Amino acid sequence: MILRLIAIAILLIAGAGSAIGGQVLPDQRAPSRALGGEIAYTVYLPDAIAEPSRRFPVVYLLHGYGAGQGEWFKGGRVAEALDRLIGAGEIVPVIAVAPSAGKSWYVDSAAWGGPGDYETAIVRDLVEAVDRAYPTRTDRTHRAIAGNSMGGRGALRLAFAHLDTFGAVAALSPAIWKPGSVSSITNTQLQPSAGREKWFPRTTGETFDRKVFNAQSPFALVAAMAASGMPPRIFLASGDDDYWHLEDGTLEMYLDIVAHGLRPELRVGNGGHDWKFWRRMVEPALRFFDAGWHERK
After folding, report:
1. CB 97 within 8 A of CB 60
2. 10 Å Cβ neighbour count for 113?
3. What are the Cα distances from residue 172, in Å, to 9, 51, 53, 79, 289?
4. CA 197 to CA 213: how far, in whole Å?
5. Contact 136/95 with Cβ under 8 angstroms?
6. Which are the contacts of 142, defined by CB distance < 8 A and separation ≥ 6?
7. Residue 17 CB neighbours (<10 A)
8. Other CB atoms within 10 A of residue 289 CB
9. Which of 74, 92, 104, 143 has its CA 20 to 30 A from that of 286?
């Protein structure tokens, strides 16, 4: 902890002559019992981290299929968005953490020889490591999670399944399909059957298991989440020209949540399944998170 704070201080001093902004530290490592090794991540630290005794909200950023920990920083330009909003006083300073999770779909899959137990690695191991290493606010209200595509599905699933960990979630074009509904018909990743093995490699079993896949879906968690008395604040967004037709599942998720008495935020705009659309949603999502953080300085 002391060595990490010294490293942070050196970076801040080195950047003192430049414009005020946060620091992006790539290729960090956190020990992970779930993975039997380490989980890699990139972290954004706000300039205000140099202020003694101050603690900050945390946003976890989940990447899409085949991407990695740098996706939100390169494609999403999230550091620039954070610098702009924090610098203008539109949101409070925040720490952002983007883990690398391969093609895991953010589920535990080691038992089937899959990518690994990434759900546990993120929710338990990474969160614990980040709270030890940085001056974070450790209550659920000040911890949010966001993701795009595969990461959007993962963000919803982890937020709905771990209500004591995350107080808010934003899903951009989440890769979700409601069983037996429109989105399960219009999707292309589950049909034909060969595509299932390609897109979901050993994440539902040694071969694709639809029952397990449906049980892993955020749709399977909506009722319990809504009835819990502590649902997260929810932000959903999708482009209307999504290549995978993921606007269908996004709208169905919105309607399911509303049917259970909650009022999520919804954004449907002109755009496809890419960062050209998602970048337009980054700042609204960050403002949405900030509205739930009861601290402004």
Report:
1. yes
2. 11
3. 34, 33, 34, 17, 14
4. 12
5. yes
6. 56, 57, 58, 136, 167, 293, 295
7. 6
8. 25
9. 104
Tell me the domain boundaries of the chain: 2-291
Under 8 Å between Cβ of 129 and 35:
no
CATH architecture of 2-291: 3-Layer(aba) Sandwich (3.40)
Tens of pLDDT along 77-111?
999 999 999 999 999 999 999 999 999 999 999 99
Percentages of the chain per state (helix, strand, coil), in multiples of 5: 40, 20, 40
Global model pTM greater than 0.85: yes
